[in-house]
Amino acid sequence: FLKVPMIHWDLSTKRILTMEFVEGGQVDDRDYMKKHNINVNKISENLGKLYSEMIFVHGFVHCDPHPGNVLVRRQKQQAEIVLLDHGLYQVLQPDFRMDYCHLWMSLIHGDMSGVERYSRRLE
Prior knowledge:
Blueprint: E1 2-3, E2 25-26, H1 30-35, H2 40-57, E3 60-62, E4 70-75, E5 78-83, E6 89-91, H3 94-109, H4 112-121
Parallel strand pairs: 1-5
Antiparallel strand pairs: 2-4, 3-6, 4-5
């Protein structure tokens, strides 16, 4: 459900990242999604999976995730998210990442003592 455009390293510099052109509509364009029979709820679910895995499993944060950098398109029989602009990422340190995971699990489970404990550890 994810497409990351190919980077053209020969056309890129320290300040310019050149990627392949990929057709699609912005992730916040409901008319585009309706016209192309793309399920908004499925896109939302997949975005959650995408960013959760990126942050909680791999420890990376895409630092510019605005709608202009997230496209959607219909590719064969399924909708696909196209993630653009990979020029700036933050790498989370393992201890921070684990505390952040525990904070979110505490929030999900309504464990307020865990929320307090892990919030303090993240200060």
